[in-house]
């Protein structure tokens, strides 16, 4: 069912739609009427969900990953609009601009602070949920694919593997990430040391800009194309689709997970990993997952460090590499699993060994929780004594985890300014810290206070001036924009952490393409024209 002629204003009247429309007419009515006139294709009623819709809550919760932002106290949108075509997105931008409605855009719902579906600083607001824009067109002949923003990275991997066993794409480890937002932050994965980030392998894009224009790379220009590939989501426009460059992968790859506890020398082994991880063969990616586990005694806990890896090659070749470069790991043939690249995706994502690749098409996350996260980049090994202090702090918290991801390889050869993602040469590894809980807001502040103390403890041993952070692990503790009060100097505090010197160029691009700051959120890039 689509809007009838009774729901359509004349073209002349639409030109005068604005925020000054009588308050007796609801936001949703104004928005729906405006959509029906401004979209080149009809807009089904079933794409618009209001607070009174029976499906509103299920749609809101469908892809939201951090349950903190689904609590009753979290602000809720007036409308969730789920466009079916790029023209629907275009019309939504035009209408939100005319009506003065604040917009948030969600592709996969993985924003760590929920800014794609929650506004802590402006109300009312609406959410454009791109989940229905998920077509994927793979062209093996040209080693490329066009991928709509609502598709998950797992769906992209599956469709590539469906066409070729020797092609892949170097992006996320978590397969339910929405590719639209994922690439805007950089998009790292287990092949980053060989091929770089997802953002390093984008060759074109389609966006809707702040004026409602649909633009490809040529039309948007190289400055804007640079900004959207790592400059963070929600600042420059709405990503409709990416054209990605596929990479060649071996028909057989090897994965393994080797775990060591404190009693098995975990601290010394981790110190050694810090010294070699960025220098290993670029075909080898070994990350470390660290968390408390039950110890041998009743009620005792210890720390487990799990070395979780992908090698782009055979087990025999892998064993030669580790024997030469990281013998302390004591990797054996028994530890190694030879498999296809697509099945390695499932393994690295932590799915059961009997899982088939078709699960990637379900695009559903089964591990939602309440959490708070932070990140660091490390440029010199962290001493063993500091690690021991970190373990003591971890054993004080219920469900903490930290994941250490190696850099080096091609990441050290790409310029810091090639994309807005600046964490390249000199970075040994990145740290992600998380604390997870399951009892809502009952003890929420206790967990948040814990991770803040732990982050402070790690300060002297990580990057400095600035203390760098990863924008896709968004952390509002670093600073926030305010409603109608966006300060360049204030934004630079967190902007420099995410983007280093690239922040200044991002501000210049923002000023050029969105001077009125239509696309904005708690940590969006501000334009110079907005007075502090």
From TrEMBL:
Cofactor dependence: FAD
The keyword Secreted appears for this protein: yes
Domain annotation FAD-binding PCMH-type: ranges: 73-249
Residues making up the signal peptide according to the UniProt record: 1-24
UniProt-listed InterPro entries: BBE, FAD-bd_PCMH, FAD-bd_PCMH-like_sf, FAD-bd_PCMH_sub1, FAD-bd_PCMH_sub2, Oxid_FAD_bind_N
Places the protein is found: Secreted, Cell wall
Protein name (record): FAD-binding PCMH-type domain-containing protein
Organism expressing this protein natively: Dipteronia sinensis
Record lineage: Eukaryota, Viridiplantae, Streptophyta, Embryophyta, Tracheophyta
């Amino acid at each position: 069912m689509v809007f009838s002629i009774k729901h359509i204003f004349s073209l002349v009247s639409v030109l005068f739609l604005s925020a000054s429309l009588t308050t007796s007419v609801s936001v949703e009515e104004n928005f729906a009427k405006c959509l029906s006139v401004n979209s080149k294709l009809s807009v089904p009623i079933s794409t618009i969900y209001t607070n009174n819709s029976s499906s509103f809550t299920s749609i809101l919760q469908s892809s939201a990953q951090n349950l903190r932002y689904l609590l009753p106290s979290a602000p809720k949108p007036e409308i969730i609009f789920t466009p079916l075509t790029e023209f629907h997105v275009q019309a939504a931008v035009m209408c939100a601009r005319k009506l003065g409605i604040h917009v948030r855009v969600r592709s996969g719902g993985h924003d760590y602070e929920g800014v794609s579906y929650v506004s802590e600083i402006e109300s009312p607001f609406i959410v454009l949920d791109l989940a229905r824009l998920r077509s994927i067109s793979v062209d093996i002949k040209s080693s490329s694919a066009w991928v709509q923003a609502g598709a998950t990275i797992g769906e992209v991997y599956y469709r590539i593997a469906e066409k070729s066993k020797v092609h892949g794409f170097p992006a996320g480890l978590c397969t339910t990430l929405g590719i639209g937002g994922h690439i805007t932050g950089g998009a790292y994965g287990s092949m980053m040391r060989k091929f770089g980030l997802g953002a390093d392998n984008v060759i074109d894009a389609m966006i809707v800009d702040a004026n409602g224009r649909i633009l490809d790379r040529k039309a948007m220009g190289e400055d804007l194309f640079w900004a959207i590939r790592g400059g963070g989501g929600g600042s420059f426009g709405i990503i409709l689709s990416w054209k990605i460059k596929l990479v060649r992968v071996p028909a057989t790859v090897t994965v393994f997970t080797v775990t060591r506890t404190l009693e098995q020398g975990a601290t010394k082994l981790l110190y050694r990993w810090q010294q070699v991880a960025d220098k290993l063969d670029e075909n080898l990616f070994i990350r470390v997952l660290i968390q408390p586990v039950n110890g041998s005694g009743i009620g005792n806990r210890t720390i487990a460090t799990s070395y979780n890896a992908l090698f782009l090659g055979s087990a025999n070749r892998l064993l030669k590499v580790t024997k030469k470069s990281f013998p302390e790991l004591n990797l054996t043939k028994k530890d190694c699993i030879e498999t296809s690249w697509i099945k390695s995706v499932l393994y690295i994502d932590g799915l059961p060994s009997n899982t088939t690749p078709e699960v990637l098409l379900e695009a559903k996350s089964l591990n939602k929780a309440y959490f708070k996260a932070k990140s660091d980049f490390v440029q010199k090994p962290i001493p063993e004594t500091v690690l021991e202090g970190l373990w003591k702090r971890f054993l004080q918290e219920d469900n903490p985890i930290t994941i250490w991801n190696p850099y080096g390889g091609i990441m050290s050869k790409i310029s810091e300014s090639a994309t807005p993602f600046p964490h390249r040469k000199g970075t040994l590894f990145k740290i992600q810290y998380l604390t997870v809980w399951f009892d809502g807001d009952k003890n929420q502040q206790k967990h948040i206070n814990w991770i803040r103390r732990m982050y402070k403890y790690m300060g002297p041993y990580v990057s400095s001036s600035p203390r760098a952070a990863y924008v896709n692990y968004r952390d509002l503790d670093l600073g926030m924009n305010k409603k109608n009060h966006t300060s360049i100097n204030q934004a630079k505090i967190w902007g420099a952490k995410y983007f280093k010197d690239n922040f200044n160029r991002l501000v210049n691009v923002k000023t050029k393409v969105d001077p009125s700051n239509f696309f904005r959120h708690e940590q969006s890039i501000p334009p110079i024209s907005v007075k502090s």
